[in-house]
Amino acid sequence: MSGITLHWSVYDPNSTNNLTTASISSGTFAANQRRNLNGGSSDPYSTPPSNLCTGTTVSSIPDLYTAYNNGGITLHMAMEAVWSQGYVSLSFPRKAGSMASADAIIGWISSTTNLPVVSAYDITSQDVRQSDALSNSWAYGLGVAYNSSSGSTIVCFSRKAKDTRAMVSSNLLANAVPGVNATLSLNFALGKQQGLGDHKQAGGLNLNILTGEVEEVVDEKAVRSHGALMTVAWSVFAPLGAIAPAHRWLFGGPRVMVFGYQLWFVVHVFCQFTSFMLCLASFILAFVKFGDGNGNVYTAHVAVGCIVMALSILQILIAFALRPAPTHRLRRIWNFFHHNVGRLAIILAWTTIYLGIRVYHTSDFKGDMKPWIVANTVMIGFAVLLYAFVSIVSATKSRGGYEAANKDLIPGDRNVEANAQ
Fold it and tell me: Is pTM, for the whole model, over 0.85?
């Protein structure tokens, strides 16, 4: 939740020690203050805390005034994001991290009128339309403000803990334990434009409004980090690591040594080990951070991804634990398995990455596929073209008598293999 601060306060006219005002920023609980109240509709804390959005005079907001007089627990909320490009949204979902179904507040500052635009929405799918806006809303005192000093947009509102007009969150505190736990499931989103549409950042969390404890569910940053790690691992390091042993002459063959090993061998091990560690980190991130998804594409992405991880571990075992000496009779069999398991892992990894891009786009995050597809295609294309180019150069050098004059530099030469040990 980097760059996002959530403020809330709770008012119960029937309690004398009930109000918690607190805020969380960047996923960390920042402040928690309890106040003794006398109760009653005239109590000043029945109004939202002073803020740029709603102010503090309850009588100036007729629907709020009516709601307070009807009694019951009231929740005041404001989400502040360092964001000026599009909308800001906070919602009460059926499940934190899942976009639908949810009761949401979405607002922005119009660039044409410089006026706030904010409404409550009943989100039933991944596509939110203006027709989903509610005329008889469960939210009161809605507002949007822009803080020029901090460059942040604030959306704020108040609501009753119990309100049958909220289709998903009609009873926010149904499972609350008085004085101990009152956990709300929340989603947040920052839009790319002023108006309904795709978002730039989104996430979900479970917030205990009494203690301020926060459990982040699926942060979109974690999703993008997962994709970025896999992209760098399999579209950059793995192909370069595969080129090194296939075209050793690029690195001077056995004549260039580093730390007692031939340079091509050092490059190969470094690239493949780095690829493995990035892949492992991304794999662990997915299992720790992500919940279960649905759909055939998601199932295929997970299944093929697990196969790629298994092949990666197998390659480590083949390379370090099962490698026979270059002159051993099983070396040719080892070469066959080592080379082709690596090629299969790379091809499946590329497939998994594109499946993951599709999953990201069809998920609740509705991620933009274009930059991911372009970036991966460019990197993979470069690796394939580079491999083809050096293969052609290698073949040309062999036909031109290069092999006879530089036998120890030709890929596959036994002397080169022996010197690599």
Answer: no
